[in-house]
Amino acid sequence: MKVKLKGRYVILSLIFLVLGFLISYSYQLTKDKIQNRTLTSEQWDKEYETRALLINKEEANKNLQEELFEKQEEVKKIEESLKSEKQVYYNLVEDVEKYRMYIGELPIKGKGIQIKLEDTSYIPEGENVNNYIVHESHIFKVINELYISGADAISINGQRLDRKSYIYCNGPVITVDGRQFPAPFIISAIGDPSVLIPAMNIAGGVIDQLTYENIVVTVEEKEEVRMEPLLQEQKLTS
Q1: Whole-number mean pLDDT of the chain?
Q2: Can you give the CATH number for the domain in which 130 is found?
Q3: Paired strand residues for 187
Q4: Segments in the chain below pLDDT 70
Q5: How far is residue 93's CA from residue 103's CA, in Å, rounded to a whole number?
Q6: Distance between CA 97 and CA 91 in Å, rounded?
């Protein structure tokens, strides 16, 4: 009987020992869970704060990106405007250079023609010599026709003409802007030869008129005609 009681005590002791262990383990596990839950909450708060800061930074970056795009569009418009202005200025410079060449301030060269006017070599006996030599009226006919046909620049025996040039005949010589030149008279013109030559050779035109008036006329196409700028003193006096 006593043996049975001792066995029961042993079994009860073991049960209480296991139960105490389970209670202790359960308590420790619960404690750890509570501590872990507290730590996770702190981490969550920190993570939330970090995410909020990141969202704010992303929003700020988005605003800056939009502002950057706006500035880039403004810069693009300014560049386009400057490009247009640059083209306008370039065109203006080209026009200025062209006009300076036309008025004789700069040298000029280009395709053109050369017209030679000579006195006739044969004068019938008893005829008036003045009817067989070149006069300023003949030169004016050639120059006017050249300008009408689109010549960009004209010179006489190397003397370049401008809008105020004057030409007159003094016996066997021609005076151009104060400079005298004997025959033959070489009139050079810069322009399109395919236009200038037909204009001179038109039926009943300048060449026919000069030939009828006993003037020897020679027309030649030139691949390049060069003209020097007018001297300053010549521009001032012309």
Answers
A1: 79
A2: 3.30.70.1880
A3: 115, 156
A4: 1-44, 89-90, 95, 97-104, 231-238
A5: 15
A6: 10
